Amino acid sequence: MAEIAFGIIGNVLPKLGSVVCQELSLAWDIKSDLKRLERTMSTIKEVLLDAEKKQASDPLLRLWLGQLNDVIHDAEDVFDEIEYQALRNQVVATHGSTSRKVLHSFSSSMTHAFPFKLAHQIKSIRERLDEIAADKDKYNLTQQREDGHVNKRVNVISIVGLGGLGKTTLAKWVYNDERIVQTFPLRMWVCVSEDFRVTRLIKEILKSVCGIIDENWNADTLQTRLRELLNDKKFLLVLDDVWNEDRNKWIELRDLLIAGSEGSKIIVTTRSHVVASVISTDSTYNLEGLSQDDCLSLFVKCAFEDGEDKQHPNLLKFGKEIVEKCKGVPLAVRTLGSLLHSKVDEREWKFVRDNEIWKLEQKENDILPALRFSYEQLPIHLKRCFAFCSLFPKDHEFYSDQLIRMWMANGLIFDMPINKEQDLEDVGELYINELLSRSFFQDASEKLPSLPFYTFKMHDLIHDLAILVAQEECSVVELGNKNIAGTIRYLSFLEMGQGVPNYLDKLTKVRTIMPTGVQPLPMSLVEVCISRFNYLRLLDLSDSSIEVLPRSIGTLKHLRYLNLSYNIKIKKLPNSICKLHNLQTLLLHGCSRLERLSKGTGNMISLRYLAVTSKYMCLLENESFNSLRSLSLFSCLKVKVLFQEMDGCLTNLRTLVICDCPSLTSLPFNIKHLTALEYLAIYHCPMLSLMGGEDHNQDLKLSLRSLFIGNLPKLEFLPLWIQGYANTLQHLEIEDCKNFEALPEWLPTFKSLHTLEIIDCPYLSSLPEGTHRLPALRKMNFEGCPRLSRNLDGKVSPRSLMYQSFCSMRTRGYFNKSRRSGKELSIGR
Prior knowledge:
CATH topology of the largest domain: Leucine-rich repeat, LRR (right-handed beta-alpha superhelix)
CATH class of the largest domain: Alpha Beta
CATH superfamily of the largest domain: Ribonuclease Inhibitor
Number of helices: 23
Mean pLDDT: 82
Strand content: 5-15%
Helix content: 25-40%
Shape: globular
CATH architecture of the largest domain: Alpha-Beta Horseshoe
Distance between the termini: 30 Å
Strand order of the largest sheet: 8-9-10-11-12-13-14-16-18-19-20-21-22-23
């Protein structure tokens, strides 16, 4: 809890000194309250790091932190409301108004009831915080810085062991072994976790083989499809991380697996011997921990660079003692080794060895103290971001860009004083990289230049840790949940009925509502959430069959993230949505009946990410989106023009994705004025010509690094405006452009070009002279270009990076099929 309060205080303190707060203080005589509030918060912040370390062994201190956490959240809500009022007045003023006019507009409203209410709330918060601060000395806090056989034809093998021992890793080695691949024509892998609903498991088994299935299939159809899949085939099925102790559920699943041929195998990984006995396995492998020698070898690899350990024999002595405490658990060893990587100060190693957290009582399946200790060593900002991840189910595949936007919406990414050209999205990227480096995230996919995101997961044991540290703030709700703490502010729904749960009555300050299971939120719950939770920052209503979005959505003045994707019945949005001046992310992809964006959408002056499917002919008409960083257009079937006027608009746009827009005829003539644009992807636009904008201005500072073009039959040559990116373009990929004839003679001037990919362009016959002398070129690949006279690397490479990226986009969410209509749609997340 201390890290939460620390982070929020860090957000609130700069706001106390803002010009808007000063205007408010002068108008309502609360200057002394603001000054005192600032001093008290600063004083409390200084001791929060010490409180974080001591709370585990002091119940009264934890109670004090809970009270502090509550009032700090209330303070953030109040000052967030003040900022919203400033944004609202900025919108009311003309876009050309000076800041003085905006401030004057805000000042003139000080006589109204709204600021009076805020002033009263500030006084109340100051009094509550003073009372809490008076008790801090009691805790001596010091200032610190920072069943049997399946018809006897299918054998079941269990791998049992504590979390982090490597059960899943062992199962993966078996699953991917070449001998296994040759022995079992059909292999399937399903991550089970706590959700052992047989219908869900059948779906996951089918998806493991088929990739995509019809989510609307009923239970009978699913069982029929499964039997057809397994019929007389020798299969290997891995059920990873099973917790189910209900024998009846296992029998129900087992009876559906008898169609496989003799010699089929099921491998079950579980932490529980009870589970292994319930499924009556033929063989059980009790996975033991690593030997001390193996643990030390792994620890050395994680803590030192190659050979560096020999230079620090004094540290190895401490390393051996630390490894002993890990009890042979590889994940604990790797995590602590990563924690101490490149640290050569003996004091840091002693601190890890001697920390009191090792003394905490540990039961058989508890979170290992080693991992909890590594969490304690995270910086405050990473603790809060890590805890937020507890809202997702086990084995969830995170998308980097989506998670960053969710962190941003909840104020978990601080605008730190780093490179001033970096956006909050860049800071979020640093957060993910650091959590990956510390082993809190794992299995990261390759960062392909053709994709603006990558994926990663959390180990089950790490996920348990996230749940443990976030339990005061975050809750995953399943059917039958009754006891929800009143302090919960972040809710995800794994499984829902159709009604509105009674426990929501005691929740008043919820900030996040989102579904993480296969079921969308029912409309009755949607209406309650919008009307009751006035402090919402993140609201996910995707695939909810909404026909009419309630007008009251405009009252959610704190909202930063709104996901309305795949609501295929929505035809228009209420004009009140334009009052969401704090909104950063708006997802409207897959809304195939949406006629147009609301008039006045430009009033959402904080909007940074927009993904949209629309039937309207002009996407952004007479609107300005100066805060927008990413714009994605998917299946906008009637759009002919992107922007009516673009001068002075989209000046901060970094990513532009255009896909499945069959009526689009041209890009904006002055697209070269998008000086911040780094990533441009254009796919499936049969009427689009890229020509235009040839009057390139050499004085413009351009930023484009990646350009991806696919399925543009009108493309014969690259337009001249691309030459303006000769100093910045790193990746150029062209695919399935049937009439593309030649690369331009000026291509060899692209001094930063790393990758050149041209796929399925049958009329391409030669390369410009000097292409092989491109100074930065690392990879050049050509496929499906029969007229090309020669391939520079002398061989035909495997199927191209572009094709792999395209398939990756298809499987990871950019080109999924609509679950309702079966029509292929391009989506974002």
